[in-house]
User: Fold this.
Amino acid sequence: MLVRLMYASRTAPALDQDALHAILRQCKENNPALGITGLLCHCSTSGIFMQVLEGGRSAVNGLYLKIAADARHTDVELMDYAEINERRFAGWAMGQINMSRLNPGLLLKYSATPVLDPYSVSGKVSLAMFDELVATASIMGDRG
Ligand code: FAD
Assistant:
């Protein structure tokens, strides 16, 4: 039983580059053993995280509960959750989307302003936008 979960959150005010690297280190250390793959998108200008987690239902649900309780972000909101037949991001223990290479026109395609704000659009729109972010922005991080 595979599922895909996507959520959005706001970064804690004190979150700096070191804290971001610490989170990515935890992803890299923990996710392979949990069988979890996915992508983490961080936008420093809007202070937003978006993350997609794919894997077994129990593993994804358990990790999501842990992540949701993490003080390094707030306003954690589930955007989309679905049973899936196959993974989209099987190659990534946790790839990181490079927001600095993002075309603002892509954000305008999906929202009223060229600002990343997943709270103002539906989960399905967020997922479509996320797919396009993956296709147009480069993904960093180790392949799982
Ligand atoms: P412990 O290290 O025992 O953590 C205990 C508590 O401290 C937890 O509440 C934890 O949230 C918090 N904590 C841990 N390290 C720090 C730190 N450096 N600074 C501040 N608080 C800390 N973890 C994954 O394994 N996979 C992921 O894909 C993943 N994605 C994340 C995405 C985001 C946006 C954030 C904010 C966190 C993510 N994490 C991820 C980290 C996750 O929330 C847990 O901290 C991590 O899984 C370790 O939890 P633990 O309880 O086993 O470890």
